[in-house]
Amino acid sequence: MNTEKNEVAAITGTTESEFQYTLPPDALDDYELLENLCDIDNGDVSKITGTARQLLGDAQIEALKDHVRKENGRVPASKMIEEIIQIFKGSQVKNS
Question: Cβ distance 50 to 18 under 8 Å?
Fold first, then answer.
């Protein structure tokens, strides 16, 4: 019986705007995340916010919002989506 675990390192990266993120090792090996991403690909944009939180977790989503927040206190949706796309693409490249 093999009891050795294959430890997978966390996925880390930095977006073009210099936001640093860390994804848990199992973040992308999540069937429900895959379902949500498929729904988004099929046009269900209402799942973007929940999927981003599922991928990054509460603390990193709040940090990302603060990172893109404008001086007037607003968080531009376009910037958040741009950052989330970069994070997902970056994590795919490192995982392949």
Answer: no
Bridge partners (DSSP) listed for residue 11: 23
The residues pairing with 13 across neighbouring beta strands, listed in sequence order, are 21
Polymer length of the chain? 96
pLDDT for position 47: 93
pTM over 0.70: yes
Name 50's Cβ contacts closer than 8 Å, sequence gap at least 6.
36
Nearest-angstrom CA–CA distance, 33 and 50:
10
User: Which amino acid, one-letter code, is at 39?
Assistant: D
Q: Are 7 and 39 in contact (CB under 8 A)?
A: no
Number of C-beta neighbours around residue 2 at 10 A: 4
